[in-house]
């Protein structure tokens, strides 16, 4: 592995430039082990348990309407970008379909809510930590829902849930937020309208949740924590049935695939990209055969969207359920994979601020990190340096139970003032030099906080990252 000290960073960090966006292509994966065909499942990026830093696509639940309307899957699978592994957790949620989930990257868990089970429609909340499922007991919860959609807003440290069918009946426009402990019904100044079986993704570059489909309107809405605003229209038609959404954090685009036309009934195997202002139709490679209820997520380590399953139309008008895995990513393989999942504790008691990369580091592209747990208004400073795996306890300087995980500090950058949720943002465009591919850095934020310890300094969890290259 290359160390940061092998290169002089100062000249290039003073003159940064974005690398051009790469051409994208749909290509099939060919895993040897294949999960059972399904639709209306969750496929979410999150922890896989292979190591403390390991992440990939996590799949749970689903159904196959071609077999039975009362078929509920309860198996858990993980996909690392090449192969599927069936997991055998000690505890699992009841089998279900039409549920919703999102990856809470600060706490490194997938949060799952509701869905249709053999016992009816539920409003239970579960988390997946990479090895096991745990049911939570929040004081407040949304009503029993199917067809809701969820995304994690890392800038506000909230899981956002919107829409769905209440008890499988009327659709709702309600927005709920989960803070890791409890659900709260939000009161935005405007709503996106009632909808179900729609798509929702979080755009980390612009700090908004984006939703589309699930209603007889083609309007695309974005939510910043205060208001849902119509920002444009789907380019082809309103989509009622199961479009898939995923945010490509490497290229800063929201990817939409599939769906059923609200007025035409046409199953659309189309790929569109939304950059916050313009839709672009992408016709590259062979897209998935399915067009409805496809599971889709983005794997930043391989810079690719991954899909599994869904329903497809066949000649004659019949329907089949898919068990195929497809990817939408760079036309040429990623030259070096990025990573940033390994977290090192800043303080043990009380725990220090923590966060994660909203966008992983790639040569020539923007890195975004959100760190939460600061006092609102605090201006932390982000330290870049080489990792010190044997960082000592800082009790001798007045910070017992705290650690500074760098042997040498190379750069210090002021971060944005912490918002009302105590989250601060750090952004930096990585140098466009190929020589940075594979470099390892450690990022750790510090903030002056009188009274937190005798030293008066908060030590956030450190993140060890590897720079990737497309």
Question: Quick gist of this model?
Answer:
By secondary structure, the protein is mainly β.
Write down the domain tally: 2
Give the overall silhouette.
globular
Q: List the total number of helices.
A: 1
Q: What is the CATH class name of the largest domain?
A: Mainly Beta
Structural class, by secondary structure, is: mainly beta
Task: Give the CATH architecture of the largest domain.
Answer: 6 Propeller
Number of strands: 38
**Average pLDDT taken over every residue:** 91
Structure notes:
With 470 residues, this protein is an all-beta fold. It has two domains: 2-12 and 336-466, Immunoglobulin-like (Sandwich); 23-330, 6 Propeller (Neuraminidase). The chain has one helix and 38 strands. The protein has one helix at residues 10-13; strands spanning 2-3, 24-28, 42-47, 55-60, 76-79, 84-87, 100-104, 109-117, 120-128, 133-135, 145-146, 149-153, 158-162, 165-166, 175-178, 183-185, 199-203, 208-212, 219-223, 228-233, 244-248, 253-257, 271-274, 279-282, 295-299, 304-308, 311-313, 319-321, 325-330, 339-344, 354-359, 366-372, 381-387, 406-414, 423-429, 439-448, 457-459, 462-466. The strands form ten sheets. Strands 1, 30, 33, 34, 36, 37 and 38 form a seven-stranded mixed beta sheet that branches. It has a four-stranded antiparallel beta sheet with strand order 2-29-26-25, with no helix packed on it. Strands 3-4-5-6 form a four-stranded antiparallel beta sheet, with no helix packed on it. Strand 7 (100-104) and strand 8 (109-117) form a beta hairpin. The longest helix has 4 residues, at 10-13. It is globular and about 75 Å long. It starts with a strand and ends with a strand.
């Amino acid at each position: 592995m290359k160390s940061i000290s092998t290169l002089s960073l100062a000249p290039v960090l003073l003159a940064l430039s974005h690398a051009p966006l790469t051409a994208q292509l749909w290509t099939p994966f060919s895993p040897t082990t294949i999960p059972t065909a399904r639709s209306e499942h969750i496929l979410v990026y999150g922890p896989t348990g292979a190591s403390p830093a390991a992440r990939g696509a996590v799949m749970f639940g689903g159904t196959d309407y071609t077999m039975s309307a009362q078929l509920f899957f309860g198996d858990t699978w993980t996909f690392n970008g090449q192969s599927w592994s069936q997991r055998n957790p000690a505890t699992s949620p009841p089998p279900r379909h039409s549920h919703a989930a999102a990856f809470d990257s600060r706490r490194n868990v997938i949060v799952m809510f509701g869905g249709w089970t053999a016992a009816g429609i539920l409003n239970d909340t579960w988390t997946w930590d990479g090895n096991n499922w745990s049911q939570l007991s929040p004081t407040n919860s949304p009503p029993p829902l199917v067809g809701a959609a969820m995304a994690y807003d890392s800038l506000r440290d909230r899981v956002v849930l919107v829409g769905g069918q209440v008890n499988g009946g009327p659709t709702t426009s309600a927005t709920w937020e989960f803070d890791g402990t409890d659900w709260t019904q939000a009161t935005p100044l405007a709503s996106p309208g009632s909808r179900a079986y729609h798509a929702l993704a979080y755009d980390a570059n612009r700090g908004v949740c984006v939703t589309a489909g699930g209603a007889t309107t083609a309007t695309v809405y974005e939510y910043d924590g205060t208001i849902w605003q119509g920002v444009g229209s789907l380019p082809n038609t309103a989509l009622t049935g199961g479009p898939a959404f995923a945010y490509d954090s490497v290229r800063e685009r929201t990817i939409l695939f599939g769906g059923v036309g609200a007025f035409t009934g046409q199953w659309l195997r189309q790929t569109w990209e939304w950059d916050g202002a313009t839709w672009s139709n992408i016709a590259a490679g062979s897209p998935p055969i399915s067009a409805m209820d496809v599971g889709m997520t983005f794997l930043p380590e391989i810079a690719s969207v991954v899909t599994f399953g869904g329903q497809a139309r066949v000649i004659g008008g019949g329907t089949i359920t898919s068990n195929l895995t497809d990817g939408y990513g760079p036309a040429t393989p990623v030259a070096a994979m990025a990573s940033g999942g390994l977290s090192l504790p800043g303080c043990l008691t009380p725990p220090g601020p923590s966060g994660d990369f909203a966008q992983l580091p790639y040569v020539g592209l923007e890195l975004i990190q959100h760190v939460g747990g600061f006092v609102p208004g605090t201006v932390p400073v982000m330290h870049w340096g080489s990792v010190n795996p044997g960082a000592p306890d800082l009790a001798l300087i007045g910070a017992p139970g705290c650690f500074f995980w760098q042997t040498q500090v190379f750069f210090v950058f002021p971060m944005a003032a912490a918002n009302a949720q105590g989250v601060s943002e750090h952004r930096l465009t990585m140098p466009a030099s190929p020589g940075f591919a594979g470099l390892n850095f450690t990022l750790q934020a510090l903030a002056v906080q009188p009274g937190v310890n005798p030293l008066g300094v908060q030590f956030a969890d450190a993140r060890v990252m590897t720079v990737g290259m497309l």
